[in-house]
Design brief:
four-stranded antiparallel β-sheet
Length: 79
């Protein structure tokens, strides 16, 4: 039986904020502090306030919104 763990990233990329572009991340590392506004894999828009520099957000994300996102230097991790 093969072991599969979708929480282990296979790839990563620099996040480009956009209110319209779709992504498929299993988590985001935020290099700079601020607020992170995303659309979750379930389709809900969520604002995560008070994200710390260097904080990892383990959440399936399909959009990283440019409007109101103030965190910087983000890296998105892909399954």
């Amino acid at each position: 039986m093969a072991f599969r763990n979708d929480s282990i990233a296979n790839d990563a990329e620099t996040v480009t904020k956009s209110d319209t572009a779709f992504v498929d991340y299993i988590g985001i590392l935020c290099g700079g502090a601020g607020n992170l506004v995303v659309t979750t894999g379930a389709g809900n828009d969520v604002t995560i306030t008070g994200v710390l520099a260097g904080q990892y957000i383990p959440l399936r994300i399909i959009k990283v919104k440019s409007t109101s996102t103030t965190t910087t230097n983000m890296t998105g991790f892909k399954a």
